[in-house]
Specification:
The chain is α+β, with helices and mostly antiparallel strands. About 40% of the residues lie in helices and about 15% in strands. The longest helix is centred in the N-terminal third of the chain and has 22 residues.
């Protein structure tokens, strides 16, 4: 079965499962009046699931020219300094310990969360890329490939993938996906509604001559179908072919021209159920030393607005505050805070361990606290270890917080959580205990 057919089969299965779940959840489970309530499951079971070890993402293969340039650059660096960064467990722990001691002496790192305004101003200033907390936001698309790429690169790659599938087969279903993935949403919705009407008329009245042909100069066809990517391919797969009648272009339908192994009801169903090929947010896992964890400047990808729009909004707010010259009420401050938080689409979450190391991951702002626990648990050497996460703003995150989102807990655009194991180490010195998988130390970058 091709990838396109698998995609539509999966969507049908998901829709059927949703209907069953919806019907099953309409009535609760029966019980006797005098029966005591069942106890809620313990917290140890709620987070006791196992998660697969983190597998570093596959990156794009370098060309021969790029590889040669990289080797030349590395050789120049080696000439300047022969010192290499040691990623062994003992070396990383020693480096983290030295930085923690220096941090205590200088009395730095007093604040776990950076003010949103400061982060925004730093981002708008267009700082150096090396000071960014991460390179950007990256995604996976298992249907297309195993690569990890930014969203703009995926749009190009998905487009190439769909047109390749269009040539290899499944023309009708692939064209349905092209309409959704290669056009603006409003244009795609109007086009699909028009195509569904054409095909349903054919299904209902297969012998009516007025439904067997479409005049290509028709206003509705020209505005909503003709210049939409993938639309004509859908009609060609349905059995239409271009002909001229009285020197005017028409699309004429014949059953013999219909794509093999494809009927009109299936094509209508494909048009109604097609959607954009989903992208999975990559956590972009990083392991940081204490000094590296001070970088909190976020790239523009984290914002819903463009840099110009953010700058304009900041200026308008500053002018409004200057003109008002009055104290703001609590409700006004809360509205301002909510408006600021809604500027962000993604959140950068950092978790600091007792030995000073920090792991960093990227999340959607509406992902749940339980997703953060799962991310941390998948990085632990002992995935069955019970632990807590503590946020300066919210305090200890408990079972009642698992269904809350990062937005609800105001852990955006960036936050620092403290890792607290429920059982202390045998020697009582938690700072010397390594909780992370040893293979993750290879992700520690040199200064």
């Amino acid at each position: 079965m091709s990838k396109i057919k698998k995609f539509f089969s999966k969507k049908k299965a998901e829709a059927a499962a949703f209907k069953v779940k919806l019907m099953g959840s309409s009535m609760g489970e029966g019980h006797k009046l005098n029966t005591p309530k069942q106890e809620a499951p313990s917290s140890s079971n709620s987070r006791g699931r196992k998660y697969e070890a983190y597998v570093p993402p596959k990156r794009n293969e370098l060309s021969n020219e790029a590889r040669a340039a990289a080797n030349a650059a590395l050789s120049r660096i080696d000439k300047k300094t022969s010192r290499e960064f040691n990623t062994s467990l003992s070396a990383v722990k020693a480096q983290a310990k030295r930085e923690l001691e220096a941090e205590r002496r200088q009395k730095e790192g007093a604040s776990a969360n950076v003010e949103v305004s400061a982060s925004t101003a730093s981002t708008l200033s267009g700082g150096d890329n090396k000071n960014m907390a991460c390179e950007g936001v990256f995604f996976r698309c298992p249907m297309v490939s195993d690569e990890v790429l930014p969203k703009k690169d995926w749009k190009v790659k998905i487009r190439e993938f769909l047109y390749q599938q269009l040539e290899e087969g499944d023309r009708g279903l692939t064209a349905c996906l092209i309409i959704h993935n290669c056009n603006v949403k409003e244009k795609a919705d109007d086009c699909i509604a028009t195509l569904v009407r054409y095909l349903e008329n054919l299904i209902t009245n297969p012998t009516d001559e007025k439904f067997l042909k479409i005049r290509m100069s028709n206003k509705i066809f020209s505005e909503k179908v003709r210049y939409v990517e993938g639309a004509l391919d859908v009609l060609y797969a349905a059995g239409f072919s271009e002909v001229k009648i009285d020197d005017e272009p028409f699309l004429l339908w014949t059953r013999e021209q219909t794509e093999q192994d494809l009927d009109l009801p299936t094509l209508v169903d494909g048009l109604k159920n097609s959607e954009c090929i989903p992208l999975e947010l990559d956590r972009n896992l990083k392991v940081l030393l204490p000094s590296q964890a001070r970088r909190v400047v976020l790239p523009n990808d984290f914002y819903r607005l463009s840099p110009e729009e953010i700058k304009k909004e900041q200026q308008l707010r500053s002018e409004a505050i200057k003109q008002a010259h009055m104290l703001r009420t609590k409700a006004m401050r809360e509205r301002e805070e909510q408006r600021t938080l809604r500027m962000y689409r993604y959140a950068l979450v950092r978790v600091k361990f007792p030995n000073g190391l920090v792991i960093q991951g990227t999340f959607y702002v509406y992902e749940k606290i339980s997703d953060v626990f799962e991310f941390v648990q998948s990085c632990l050497a002992d995935e069955s270890l019970e632990f807590n996460l503590v946020a300066n703003s919210e305090g200890k995150l408990g079972e009642e917080d698992m269904d809350k989102t990062l937005f609800d807990c105001k852990l955006i655009p960036n936050s620092l959580l403290l890792f607290c194991p429920e059982t202390s180490s045998s020697d009582g010195n938690a700072g010397d205990v390594n909780y992370l998988k040893e293979e993750l130390f290879m992700l520690v970058q040199s200064m």
